[in-house]
Amino acid sequence: MACRAPVNRIIPFSLVDGPGARCSVFLQGCNIACTYCHNPETQRLCVGCGVCVESCPAGALSRADGSVIWDRTACVACDTCIEVCEHRASPRIAWQTPEEIFGIVRGYAPFIRGITVSGGECMLYPGFLRELFSLCKAVGLGTLIDSNGTIDFAAHEDLLAVSDGIMLDVKAWDPDVFSKLTGGDVAPVKRNLAFLAERGRIEELRVVVIDGWTDPEDTLAGMAGLLGERTGAQRLRLTKFRRFGVRGPLADAPSPTDERMAALVRLAERLGFADIVLS
Amino acid sequence: MSEFMDIITADNLTYKQKVLKLAQAAENSEHPIPTTPAFDRFFSRDAICDMHEGNAPYRARYICVDFQKFARQGSDFLRLDAPENLDDLLFNLEVLYENIPSVTGRPVYCGQLDKIIDPFLGDLSDEEILPRLKRFLNFIDRTVASGYCHANIGPEETRAGRLLLEADAEVQNAVPNFTIKYDPAITSDDFARLCLKTAMRCANPAFANHRLLKDTYPVPEAGYPDGYTIVSCYNVLPVRGGAYCLDRVKLSRLADMAGSVDEFMDKLLPEATAALLEYMNARVTFLVEKSSFFQSSFLVREGLIERERFCGMFGVIGMHECIEKLLGPGHTYGTDDEANDLADAIMGKVTAQVLDFPAVYSEIGGDHYLMHAQAGFGDQLESTPGVRIRVGDEPEVFYDHLRHSARMHRFFTAGVSDIFPVEPTAAGNLDALLDVIKGAFAIDDKYLSFYPSDSDLVRITGFLVKRSEMEKFAAGKAVLADTSHDGEGNWRANALGDRKVRL
Ligand code: SF4
Ligand code: SF4
Q: Which residues of chain A neighbour B397 with C-beta distances below 8 Å?
């Protein structure tokens, strides 16, 4: 199973994962755990506890050798399994090879201009990505990575060679804010930002705005300070927090106001960002 | 009360709508066109249908005036000199629109507007042009007041095209429909994006696959880039000509008469097709030889239309329900291979028969009638438009829907289309919509339209109406555009509000 990855979902047509019409592939498993995660069930791999098997109303789940088997054809997509899972996992994943994913994606040509792989954190599977992207590149499909930035890209030159670019989350700048929000360390994110910007490989920088949880003013200033004269060359996406799918302390948190978002756009412009998208 | 008195006393029709309906009722009191027993049998079962075009046609159904020629020469009959500036041109057009007949009493085509208007822009500034275009579009909306009226732009990007889109987005009218003749090899991406941006604001324009359609008909004279135009819902017709009539086989009703697939294919379908074709010949003969339309119209005399550029349209409707009835549950049209193969076979058979039949006065169609995927009107239950997949049964993956469309579109010369509501957020990624259109057109989809799923302007079968106006009519109030009447019934009957939001 050297080169299989756990695939949570494939969305044939996405409007929001890069330029043009794209197919989005979501891999299962993440190395951090953001409080605002919209898909918390993608964060961990199934531990085989079996709780969801009992709750499935369609009999689509069964146990074998300590793991859970999901019957795609029987599943009615009711989401009960992911609601009862206490491990932030999902039994509805398939360990698939790059060739298998490519076979599906290729069927979506000529309508899409490329694929975007996301997660979870897709950089947990760099070898899988490299092979999938090589196959896509060979038929002219674009390849983007959507990453939380906590895994060093400098160690994956071969993957970068077949990637069009990286959509990089910069969730916070201050180490304490970052750690409270994600449970992780912001240092590699900053290293990646510098490295990828220098290589001209950033497709988009993504900053999510949640009142009281992220400090976007600080993040924008930090990024601009680090990027220096490259700031203007990076596309910046400022995203309003929305509570859909979120569990835990932010499940009922409000979205920031339009005024706050507008003020952030003005700040970003002052800091030198030139290509700013609000979403 | 008589039918006439019902119309006269109705309180939800405007004066103009009453006049039109009274004229239709009067026409229908005559019966000059002979029918055969076979026609009568299918007609009484609603398996073939004359589209309520009227028993005694005294004008062609759809007239595609050569407005470019009109813009060059003016009109003797209307005592209009050739226009010298934009104001002259728009005034002349408005006068001419008032004098174009059609089955709805109002023009279903108001021109390839960008090509007509562009030469008259001169050194006027945008600020000078825009108010004029908005007034002009409002004139069409308020006087023609029929969602079946259609304007074309493209495929080239022009200043007039850009300004028309801008004006249209601002006025938010249901009339006219716009179509861009789109060819990625000719139309710039910038202009295509502007079209999509406009569509996300006012559901206009729709996209026609210019690469596939441009050679549908010969050009009216040397120097014209193409000979076709999009009119009414999405009919592809010869410019400087049009359609005599549109009659149709209702496949869903015909299937009601069938005891088996074989009986349907080998007996009912060929018999109904033959009966309708014979009827069309009788109808066209009456129109051309008896009604004096082509002999008396100033449009013919001044060369703005030519009888030789008219043809009849043979329509089909209700493929989805037809397949459902023939194959029973478990074979859903759109997603089931057997269902789709049967639909393909049905279309192949009808088309072959139509293209084998000697149609009278149909030189422009090679002496044959033209196939059209008819979309229906009013609240006809059990008849999904043309060969579309019924709302609610769309394939899960949008691309499969587009592939299905391409497969069925190939049978239709004189118009076929699909309509997709899209997420309002698509306005933020117009390239995504454009990618999909390019892909769909590359696999030979012929005509697609989009509207934002939260829009007040919505497409019914092809024509546009305002949701707010439909609601008014449903509440018993008179509304200006009578397409709101058709729209309201159709919207309910076909659950169009439930169309799968595709992008
Ligand atoms: S998905 Fe969750 S609940 Fe189901 S077996 Fe795995 S860990 Fe347990
Ligand atoms: S979503 Fe989960 S619980 Fe629901 S049917 Fe599918 S496998 Fe079973």
A: 12-13, 108
Does a structural domain hold residue B396?
A: no
Which residue ranges form the domains of chain A, and what is each CATH number? 5-41+94-278 (3.20.20.70), 51-84 (3.30.70.20)
Phi, psi of B377 (to 5 degrees): -155, 170
- What tokens does B98 get? 């008032």
Residue B423 contacts A, CB cutoff 8 Å: yes
CA distance B438 to chain A (A): 7
* Rg, chain B, Cα only: 22
Whether A81 is in the pocket of ligand 2, judged by its Cβ within 6 Å, is yes
Which atom of ligand 2 is least distant from the CA of A82?
Answer: 2
Rounded to a whole number, what is the distance in Å from the CA of A16 to chain B's nearest CA? 8
As for how many domains chain B has, the answer is 3
Instruction: Give the Å distance between the CA of A73 and the centre of ligand 2.
Output: 10
**Helix, strand, coil % over all residues of chain B, rounded to 5:** 45, 15, 40
Residue A9 tokens, joined: 């979902």
Tens-digit pLDDT profile for residues A184-234: 999 999 999 999 999 999 999 999 999 888 999 999 999 999 999 999 999
Compute the radius of gyration of chain A from its Cα atoms.
19
- Complex prediction ipTM: 0.84
Assess whether B151 and B211 both reside in one domain.
yes
Task: Report the predicted TM-score, pTM, of the whole model to 2 decimal places.
Answer: 0.88
Type of residue found at B138? N
Interchain proximity A15–B429, CB inside 8 Å? yes
Are B137 and B259 within one domain? no
User: Is B189 at the interface with chain A, CB within 8 A?
Assistant: no
Structural domain boundaries, residue B94: 62-238
A249 pLDDT higher than 90: no
Q: How far is CA A80 from CA A52, A54, A89, A119, B146, in A?
A: 8, 10, 12, 21, 50
Here the tokens at position A229 are 């004269």
User: Residue B446's CB: how many other CB atoms inside 10 A?
Assistant: 25
Give the C-alpha separation, B228 to B210, whole Å: 10
Q: Where do the DSSP E strands lie in B318-446?
A: 370-373, 418-422
Ligand nearest, relative to CA of residue A56: 2
- Is the same domain home to B55 and B77? no
